[in-house]
């Protein structure tokens, strides 16, 4: 038995999860009671229309006395609901344990032991495959390409939410009080030694989450954690310069030779060359102004978020 205090956090969002809650708690309770000296369960009810009280009341006393039920006043983003549980965690280690694994409670022990043996502060479950419809796959591929290309984040696209987090890593994570949260990116920002365990359980989106909700989550991640949009504006500006040079060259060539850059005959009208050049210059200037404004807005946005400039992993004396 390990002389450690472990907290198990789960989020209720769907009615079928409410039906599974008694089995979920009993299965995990059998493992943590046997291997840890202290433990607690934090159940976050993110579905105000459903009550979990009756499901918990029917449990044995030695189990339900270790359960803390957090009823949110209104349904919120899944990442925010997870944060509500993490805020109230008291354990030396905290395990975010999804309902997908409720029949494999031994994974809690495996995650903990892997963390201790590898000296890792975060250990997560990694799927071998993603279960998604054909219309979602290009969306996921594009999203993770942008994250890899336009940020310094090390985000594993096959990572489950299920993971164990040490106390010091959790304390650092809770310092990042982002209003727009994408937890996989925040785990990467926090750093610390991270490892994973592979599982055959496929990675899939939550059933009640629509495409529009997933799209909004992706926009949050892209705008909060990458420089993609600023880079996009830079490319638009560079394109506008090429366009400016091409339009001016074409207009001047038509004016003086009567033939455009493509070899087609053209008749220059009075004032036409000046008007085309003027429009092209204004287009390029507008794109330049947008790019400059995006740099300032990006800097202001980064300052407002007030992320810590660094996180100390440990201090040693010799």
UniProtKB/TrEMBL annotation:
GO molecular function: glycosyltransferase activity
Keyword Ribosomal protein: no
GO biological process: lipopolysaccharide biosynthetic process
Glycosyltransferase 2-like domain location: 22-171
Keyword list, A-Z: Cell membrane, Glycosyltransferase, Lipopolysaccharide biosynthesis, Membrane, Transferase, Transmembrane, Transmembrane helix
Record field: transmembrane: 232-252, 272-297
Keyword Metal-binding: no
Protein origin, superkingdom: Bacteria
InterPro entries: Glyco_trans_2-like, Glycosyltransferase_2, Nucleotide-diphossugar_trans
GO CC annotations on file: plasma membrane
Protein known as: Glycosyltransferase 2-like domain-containing protein
Species for this entry: Phaeodactylibacter xiamenensis
């Amino acid at each position: 038995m390990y002389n450690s205090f472990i907290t198990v956090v789960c989020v209720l969002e769907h009615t079928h999860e409410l039906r599974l809650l008694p089995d979920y708690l009993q299965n995990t309770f059998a493992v943590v009671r046997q291997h840890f000296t202290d433990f607690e369960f934090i159940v976050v009810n993110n579905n105000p229309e459903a009550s979990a009280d009756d499901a918990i009341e029917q449990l044995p006393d030695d189990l339900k006395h270790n359960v803390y039920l957090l009823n949110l006043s209104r349904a919120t983003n899944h990442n925010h609901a997870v944060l509500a549980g993490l805020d109230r965690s008291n354990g030396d280690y905290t395990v975010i344990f999804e309902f997908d694994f409720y029949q494999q409670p031994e994974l809690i022990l495996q995650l903990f032991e892997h963390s201790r043996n590898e000296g890792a502060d975060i250990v997560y479950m990694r799927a071998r495959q993603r279960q998604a419809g054909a219309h979602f796959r290009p969306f996921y591929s594009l999203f993770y390409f942008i994250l890899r290309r336009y940020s310094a984040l090390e985000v594993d696209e096959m990572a489950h939410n299920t993971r164990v987090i040490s106390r010091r890593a959790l304390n650092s994570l809770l310092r990042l009080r982002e209003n727009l949260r994408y937890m996989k990116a925040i785990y990467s920002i926090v750093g610390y030694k991270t490892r994973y365990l592979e599982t055959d359980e496929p990675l899939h989106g939550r059933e009640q989450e629509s495409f529009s909700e997933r799209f909004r989550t992706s926009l949050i991640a892209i705008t909060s954690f990458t420089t993609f949009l600023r880079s996009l504006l830079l490319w638009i500006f560079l394109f506008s310069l090429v366009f400016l040079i091409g339009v001016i060259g074409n207009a001047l060539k038509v004016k003086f030779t009567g033939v455009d850059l493509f070899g087609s005959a053209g008749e220059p009208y009075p004032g036409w060359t000046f008007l085309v050049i003027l429009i092209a210059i204004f287009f390029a200037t507008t794109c330049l102004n947008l790019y400059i404004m995006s740099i300032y807005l990006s800097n202001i946005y980064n300052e407002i978020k007030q992320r810590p400039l660094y996180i100390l992993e440990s201090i040693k004396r010799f």
